[in-house]
Design a protein that fits this description.
Number of helices of chain A: 13
Strand order of the largest sheet of chain A: 4-5-9-7-8
Strand content of chain A: 15-25%
CATH topology of the largest domain in chain A: Uridine Diphospho-n-acetylenolpyruvylglucosamine Reductase, domain 3
Number of strands of chain B: 18
Bound molecules: flavin-adenine dinucleotide
Structural class of chain B: alpha+beta
Largest sheet of chain B: 7 strands, antiparallel
Helix content of chain B: 25-40%
Distance between the termini of chain A: 26 Å
Shape of chain B: globular
Mean pLDDT of chain B: 93
Largest interface: A-B, 97 and 99 residues
CATH topology of the largest domain in chain B: Uridine Diphospho-n-acetylenolpyruvylglucosamine Reductase, domain 3
Number of domains of chain B: 5
Number of domains of chain A: 3
Mean pLDDT of chain A: 97
Largest sheet of chain A: 5 strands, antiparallel
Number of strands of chain A: 18
Shape of chain A: globular
Oligomer: heterodimer
CATH class of the largest domain in chain A: Alpha Beta
CATH class of the largest domain in chain B: Alpha Beta
Strand order of the largest sheet of chain B: 15-12-14-13-17-18-16
Radius of gyration of chain A: 21 Å
Low-confidence stretches of chain A: none
Structural class of chain A: alpha+beta
Distance between the termini of chain B: 15 Å
Number of helices of chain B: 18
Low-confidence stretches of chain B: 484-497
Chain lengths: 402, 497
C-alpha cells in the first residue's frame, strides 16, 4: 500500500503537489476512487485523496450554474439540483455496477476528469460541453483558474473544457463550475422491435434527422433484450426517449410513430419504465456482474455503430449494445482478454476511438486509450509537459511516459 | 491609437523581397499579394480603428500549401496572422508589419454532407450561413448564428468560438464542432475528432476552438447539423424597468423553460432600432425582450402561454406574440439591425462584449449610466439576456479630438465592471488586441502563464498571431522554468512590448 494524503483545501493541494514536484514523486489522484480502474495502471509513490475537498460554493438556479469543490459527491449535487427541478444534462453514469465499486459513489472531480456522459450526451452534449470554469493545481504546484461562472465566455483559451476528460494528467481540479438545465417535466420511451443492425442504424438516423427531439437512442441486440427485464420481448429493440413538457412529448410521440412506420410497429414505455430503461443503458447494466471480462467503450460515426457491434459479436464472441443513436458501442469481451488489436482493427475503417474501460492490470499496461498518430502523440506530450513538466500527475494514466 | 504590437523584426523586413519570392514558389499565380494597393483590403478586420499593412498576403488553396507556407515561416522566423473573412470585432486578424497575412478565403468548399450522421465536412473559408444554405433544402441547419453570418467564415468562428442569439439553447461553436484538420506552425498536419462524439485523447479540440489563430491554422472543420425545428414563434415584451425585464428572464428559466433565444434592448437601442426598421417596437418602455420559442407546434403553443403568463406577472407593459413568420422576422429585424441602427445615431461606435451574471444587470446598467455621464459619451445596450452576454454600444465621433480615447476608456471601464460583478471580458468576440491589455483584470500572472505555456506546446517560437490575447510576451524557455519553493513561484515580470 502506498501512503495516502488527504486534501481538504486548495492550499493543502498546492503544498502536496509542490512537494511531489520537488521530490519527483508520482501522484495517484482520486476522489472516491470509483474510476481508478479506468486508464493505464499508474506507478505512483503517493495517493492524493480529494474526497474531503468537498462542498458547494455557489448555486444559482435562475442562472443555471453551480460551483462545487472537486471532492463533492455527485449524488449530493444531483439531489441539490433535483430539489430545484434541475439536472446535470449530460446524465452522468454510475459506474459502480460496471467497475465493481460501491453504487452511488463518485465525486465531481472524477466525473469531470473522465468526461463520461450518459445517453443524453446525444442531444445535450458531454460533461465538457457544460464546463464553465475551474480552479486547479497543475503539476508545477501552482494554483490557477480558467473560465468563469457565466455561460458565454471566450476570455483566453478554453482550459476548463480541455481539462475535462484529461484523467487528472494535466492538473488537479480543486473547484468546478458547471452549467445545469431544467429537468424535463416528463419522459417516455418508444420501442421498435426486431431490427437488424443496419436497419437499426437507419431507424435511429431517421429519428435523429426528424424534428422529434429524441434525447436518447439505443440499440439492444436480442441477447441483451432477452436477459434484461427493462425491455419487453425476446428480440432486438431500438429505444427512443422523448422528454419535455407533456403536450410536447405527446405531439412528438405521434410524429415519431409516423417516422418509424417503415421500420415497424411501436410500443410505448411510460415514465417509470422509461427511466428504468435509460438507467440501464447509462450505467451499462447489461454488463454488470460479468466479473473480469474486458469491456470496451467505442465512439464512432453513429451509422457505423450497430454494424460494428455485430461484427465484434460475430468475430470475437463479444456482447454489445449501442447508445448515442449508434455512436457509442459498449463491448463485453468473452473473457479477460481485451484483444485490443482485433477491436481496433475492426474500428479502423469507421473512424473513432476505443477505450478499454474495464480490464485486468496486465491488460491495462498496454494502450487503454486509442493510440495517437506520431504528430498528435508528440503534441499531446508537449501539452502534458506544459502543465506537468515533471510528469507527476497520474503518470502514464493516459499514455506511456516517454 | 494607444495600441502597441510586437516590434517588427528588422531582419525580416529587410528580407521582404526574398520572402515574397520564396512564398510565390509555394503558392503560385495570384496567391501572393504584395503591392500596397492590393494589400489595403487586408489592413484591418472588423475593428477598423486599427490598421496595419502586412509584410505580404498569402492566399493558399490546399492544406499542402498551408503546410509548406507555415513550414517555411517556421524555418525562417517569419510571423503569421491567419484570417478568415476579417469580421473579428477584437482585432484578432489585425496584420503585423513583419508578418504574413494568411487568408483562408480560397478554402471555400463544402467537402461532404452526411445527413445520415448529421454532420458536414467543410473548408474553413465557407461562410457560417453557407453551411446552412448547403443543407437547408433537406431541412437541416448549422446552429450557431452570429449576426455576421452572411460574411464570417467557419474558420473564423472556430478562431473566436462565436455564438449567436440562439446560443442559450443550441450552444457556441465549441458545442457544434465535431472535428477538424489543423496545420501547426511547423507545417505538420493534425486531425482531431471526426464524425463521432467526444474526440479521443486530450480534448485539444476544446483548446483550438476560441484560440484566435494562436495555436494552428484550421484547414477543415466537421460540424454538427441539426434538423430545423418545425416552428419558431416569438414574443415581444416591453417593461417599465430593466429590473422587471431581468426578473422576467429569471422566472422563465426558473419555470424550466429554455427559450431558443432571449434578447433584451434598452431604451436607446429600442429607439435607434425602431427608427431604422420601423417594426412597431414600443417606444415608451425602458426594456424590451424578444423571447423566441422553437420546436413542435404543440410545444411552442404551450410555452407561449407560459411565457406570456410569466411576463404579465412581471409587470410587462406591452406584449405581442408573433402571429406569422413575417411578424416574427419583423421582431428580429430591429434587434439584428441594432448595430447599424445605432451607427446612424453617431459617426462611430464601439461595440463591447462583456458577460455578467444576469442578476447583476440592473446594477451594471445603472453604473454604466454614471460612467456615460463621466466620459461624456452615450451608450445603447443590446443584451443576450439568456446567457448574460452584454453588448454596450458606445457612441463617439473619431473626428473629435480625444473622443476615441474616451470611448476606449469608457469601454475598458465597462469591462472592468463586468469582471467586478463576477463576469468576464468577452463573451463571443474574443480578446484579440482590443481586450489584450485588460486580461490581468481577470487573470493573475500564474493563470496567464498556464495559458501561455499551452501556446508554447503548439508554437514554441511564438510565430502564430503574436501580440493578440496576451498582454505580455514571454519566451517559452522562461515560462517553462520551474521555481517551486513551498508552492510559491516567483513570476518574472518581463516588460510589456
Ligand atoms: C456586424 C458584425 C456582427 C457580428 N456579430 C457577431 C455575433 O453575433 N456573434 C459573434 O460571436 N461574433 C459576431 N461578430 C464577430 C465576428 O463576425 C466573428 O468573430 C467571426 O467568427 C469572425 O469570423 P471571420 O471569418 O471574419 O474571422 P476573422 O475576423 O478573419 O478572424 C477571426 C480570428 O480567427 C482567426 N482565424 C480565422 N480563420 C482561421 C483559420 N482558418 N485557422 C485559424 N485561425 C483562424 C484569426 O486569426 C482571428 O484571430 C460580428 C461582427 C460584425 C462585423
Amino acid at each position: 500500500m502506498i501512503e495516502t494524503v488527504h486534501i481538504s483545501d486548495e492550499a493543502g493541494l498546492v503544498a502536496a503537489v509542490a512537494a511531489a514536484a520537488t521530490e519527483g514523486t508520482g501522484l495517484d489522484i482520486a476522489g472516491h476512487g470509483t474510476k481508478s480502474g479506468i486508464g493505464r495502471a499508474v506507478p505512483a509513490g503517493r495517493r492524493l485523496d480529494l474526497s474531503r475537498l468537498s462542498g458547494v460554493t455557489l448555486y444559482e438556479p435562475d442562472e443555471l450554474v453551480f460551483t462545487a469543490r472537486a471532492g463533492t459527491p455527485v449524488r449530493e449535487i444531483e439531489a441539490m439540483l433535483a430539489a430545484q427541478d434541475q439536472m446535470l444534462a449530460f446524465e452522468p453514469m454510475d459506474s459502480g455496477a460496471l467497475l465493481g465499486t460501491p453504487a452511488g459513489a463518485g465525486t465531481m472531480g472524477g466525473l469531470f476528469s473522465c468526461n463520461l456522459s450518459g445517453p443524453r450526451r446525444l442531444s445535450h452534449g458531454a460533461v465538457r460541453d457544460h464546463a464553465l470554469g475551474i480552479r486547479a493545481v497543475s503539476g508545477r504546484g501552482e494554483a490557477f483558474k480558467s473560465g468563469g461562472r457565466v455561460m458565454k465566455n471566450v476570455t483566453g483559451y478554453d482550459l476548463p473544457r480541455m481539462l475535462a476528460g484529461s484523467f487528472g494528467t494535466l492538473a488537479i481540479m480543486s473547484e468546478i463550475t458547471l452549467k445545469v438545465l431544467p429537468r424535463p417535466q416528463t419522459q417516455e420511451t418508444l420501442l421498435v422491435f426486431g431490427l437488424d443492425p443496419a436497419a437499426a442504424a437507419r431507424a435511429m438516423s431517421a429519428a435523429m434527422g426528424s424534428s422529434c427531439e429524441v434525447s436518447g437512442a439505443a440499440y439492444l441486440p436480442a441477447e441483451i433484450a432477452r436477459r434484461r427485464g427493462e425491455v419487453p420481448g425476446e428480440v432486438a429493440v431500438v429505444a427512443f426517449r422523448l422528454e419535455g413538457f407533456a403536450p410536447s412529448v405527446r405531439a412528438r410521440r405521434a410524429m415519431l410513430i409516423s417516422v418509424m412506420t417503415p421500420f415497424g410497429g411501436v410500443e410505448v414505455l411510460e415514465e417509470t419504465a422509461s427511466r428504468g430503461l435509460w438507467a440501464m443503458v447509462r450505467d451499462a447494466l447489461p454488463f454488470s456482474g460479468t466479473g473480469e471480462r474486458a469491456v470496451w467503450r467505442i465512439s464512432t460515426a453513429p451509422m457505423a455503430g450497430p454494424v460494428l457491434a455485430r461484427l465484434l459479436a460475430d468475430t470475437l464472441g463479444a456482447e454489445t449494445f449501442c447508445d448515442w443513436a449508434g455512436g457509442l458501442v459498449w463491448v463485453l469481451m468473452p473473457d479477460a482478454q481485451a484483444q485490443a488489436g482485433a477491436v481496433r482493427a475492426a474500428l479502423q475503417p469507421q473512424g473513432g476511438h476505443a477505450t478499454l474501460v474495464r480490464a485486468t492490470a496486465a491488460e491495462r499496461s498496454g494502450d487503454v486509450f486509442q493510440p495517437l498518430e506520431p504528430t498528435l502523440a508528440a503534441l499531446t506530450r508537449r501539452v502534458k509537459a506544459s502543465f506537468d513538466p515533471k510528469g507527476i500527475l497520474n503518470p502514464g494514466r493516459m499514455y506511456a511516459e516517454p | 491609437m494607444s495600441l502597441r504590437l510586437p516590434a517588427p523584426d528588422e531582419g525580416v523586413l529587410a528580407r521582404r523581397a526574398q520572402i515574397i519570392a520564396d512564398l510565390s514558389a509555394i503558392v503560385p499565380g495570384e496567391g501572393v499579394i504584395f503591392r500596397e494597393r492590393e494589400m489595403k483590403p487586408y489592413e484591418s478586420d472588423g475593428v477598423t480603428a486599427y490598421k496595419q499593412l502586412p509584410l505580404v498576403v498569402v492566399l493558399p488553396e490546399t492544406t499542402q500549401q498551408v503546410s509548406r507556407v507555415l513550414a517555411y515561416c517556421h524555418a525562417s522566423g517569419v510571423r503569421v496572422v491567419p484570417r478568415g473573412a476579417g469580421t473579428s470585432l477584437s482585432g484578432g486578424a489585425l496584420p503585423l508589419q513583419d508578418g504574413v497575412l494568411l487568408g483562408l478565403g480560397k478554402f471555400n468548399k463544402v467537402l461532404e454532407i452526411d445527413y445520415a450522421n448529421r454532420c458536414a465536412v467543410v473548408q474553413p473559408g465557407v461562410t457560417n450561413l453557407g453551411i446552412t444554405r448547403a443543407v437547408e433544402h433537406e431541412g437541416f441547419y448549422y446552429a450557431p448564428d452570429p449576426s455576421s453570418q452572411i460574411a464570417c467564415t467557419i474558420g473564423g468562428n472556430v478562431g473566436e468560438n462565436s455564438g449567436g442569439v440562439h446560443t442559450l439553447k443550441y450552444g457556441l461553436t465549441t458545442n457544434n464542432v465535431l472535428g477538424l484538420e489543423m496545420v501547426l506552425i511547423t507545417g505538420e498536419v493534425v486531425r482531431l475528432g471526426g464524425k463521432h462524439l467526444d474526440a479521443g485523447g486530450l480534448d485539444l479540440l476544446a483548446a483550438i476552438v476560441g484560440s484566435e489563430g494562436l495555436l494552428g491554422v484550421v484547414t477543415e472543420v466537421t460540424v454538427r447539423l441539426l434538423k430545423k425545428p418545425d416552428v419558431a414563434r416569438a414574443v415581444l415584451v416591453g417593461f417599465p424597468t430593466s429590473e422587471d425585464a431581468g426578473d422576467c428572464v429569471a422566472k422563465i428559466i426558473a419555470a424550466g423553460i429554455i427559450p431558443a433565444g432571449i434578447e433584451m434592448m434598452d431604451r436607446d437601442a429600442i429607439a435607434a432600432a425602431e427608427a431604422f426598421v420601423n417594426v412597431g417596437y414600443p417606444l415608451d418602455v425602458e426594456a424590451l425582450l424578444i423571447v423566441e420559442l422553437d420546436g413542435p407546434e404543440a410545444e411552442c403553443a404551450h410555452l407561449l402561454e407560459e411565457v406570456s403568463r410569466i411576463a404579465a406577472a412581471c409587470k410587462s407593459s406591452t406584449l405581442r406574440v408573433s402571429q406569422s413568420e413575417e411578424e416574427r422576422l419583423g421582431f428580429w429585424a430591429g434587434r439584428k439591425a441594432a448595430f447599424p441602427a445605432v451607427g446612424r445615431l453617431s459617426p462611430d461606435y464601439l461595440c463591447m462584449d462583456g458577460t455578467i451574471p444576469r442578476k447583476q444587470l440592473p446594477l451594471v446598467l445603472s453604473r454604466m449610466r454614471q460612467m456615460s455621464a463621466r466620459h461624456g459619451l452615450r451608450v445603447a445596450n443590446v443584451f443576450h439576456a439568456g446567457d448574460g452576454n452584454l453588448h454596450p454600444l458606445i457612441l463617439y465621433d473619431a473626428n473629435k479630438p480625444g473622443e476615441m480615447d474616451a470611448a476606449e476608456a469608457f469601454g475598458a471601464d465597462i469591462l472592468r465592471l463586468c469582471v467586478e460583478v463576477g463576469g468576464v471580458l468577452t463573451g463571443e468576440h474574443g480578446v484579440g488586441v482590443e481586450k489584450r491589455d485588460l486580461m490581468p483584470e481577470m487573470f493573475d500572472a500564474v493563470d496567464l502563464a498556464h495559458q501561455q505555456r499551452l501556446k508554447c506546446a503548439f508554437d514554441d517560437q511564438g510565430l502564430l498571431n503574436p501580440g493578440k490575447v496576451f498582454p505580455t510576451l514571454h519566451r517559452c524557455a522562461e515560462l517553462g522554468r520551474m521555481h517551486v519553493s513551498g508552492g510559491q513561484v516567483p513570476f518574472p515580470d518581463l516588460p510589456r512590448f
